[in-house]
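Figure caption, in words: inputs first, then the predicted bound structure.
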Amino acid sequence: MKRRTFIKLSAMSTAGMVLPIQLEAQTEKAPLLKPSTLITPNADFYILQIGDPAVLDAATWRMALTGLIEKPMPPVRLADLTAMESVTAMRTLKCIGDPIGTEQMSNAMWKGVRLRDLLQKTGVKAEAKVVVFRCADGYHTAIPMEDAMREETLLVYEMNGEPLPTEHGFPIRLLNPGHYGTKNPKWIVNIQLAAAHESYWEKRGWDPVANVKLATVIGTPSEGEEIRAGTTYTVSGAAFDAGNHGGIKKVEVSVDYGQTWTEAEIWAKDTPLAWVLWKWNWQVPQGTAISNSQTTPKREPVEIYARATANNGVVQDEIGIEAEPQEPGGRGVGATGYHTIDAAIVAL
Ligand SMILES: Nc1nc2c(c(=O)[nH]1)N[C@H]1C(S)=C(S)[C@@H](COP(=O)(O)O)O[C@H]1N2
Ligand SMILES: [Mo]
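Bound structure (molybdenum atom present):
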């Protein structure tokens, strides 16, 4: 039941008389959730690239298909792509380099064409094992031919109903399901079929495969947040496996260092290729340490853990690995492990 408070205010009327006004203020507001929407608005979608975004002109942009193709064809114009059968799909993107809990991860509805439809026009020679994407900012990356031929691998020109914004790859970027951002190139100007290719980030110690790892991020509370004892607090966040384990089955939360877990509610989801958003209404205890505490306000530290279980039964590991390459010559494969939040329960 919602409790409401009625506050009596006085205000001056235009005639200068004092009139009583009754204002209704809700003490229990809708809980703050983070992320708060399944789809990230374009303005809030994370942005990451090696330099400045390339600014391309749709009228002059061309994308050449080269290398081990069967039938040469003139460079592709944007109108050639928009004339092809389109696909609209929800996809989450996530960066391989993020430490757990600081995820650059966002989700959008995209529109474009299947890469394989384009490759079928040019034909693929038997020696072609990878598809190399060269981009206007100097970035380049390759994906295996099997991945390129997946039905879900798209070249997109729209994001949340708008032309792809400059920062996100205008006019064309790749969406490569199951793979971190590195394998989702923006501002593509050349698609080349090749036998092998060493990509920009591989040369710098990052995983050439770049499969997204099963991970959960806690959005609320934030690190160091003070939570009122004896209230209901909504712990919330996102979980994502990019479909690599069949999607997210459940998310659990622990406030006792992992001794006991409570299942969170998944309140928004779509395809396994997009994140799920979860929340858990925590009845925050009064706490013995709090009542005995001598400090004012009385406070007791609390650690919040969250973990996901995938549809194939895989449970997220507590102890993980860092995102970055760990030794010289090593590979950064994307961070794993629990995201934990250090917060405090306070009693006034
Ligand atoms: N052309 C180009 N594409 C790129 C990159 C880049 O530096 N240049 N960075 C990649 C990385 S590391 C990530 S995480 C995603 C980020 O995509 P976004 O900026 O649309 O969120 O773009 C990928 N595609
Ligand atoms: Mo990234």
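Residues 4 and 211 are 49 Å apart (CA to CA).
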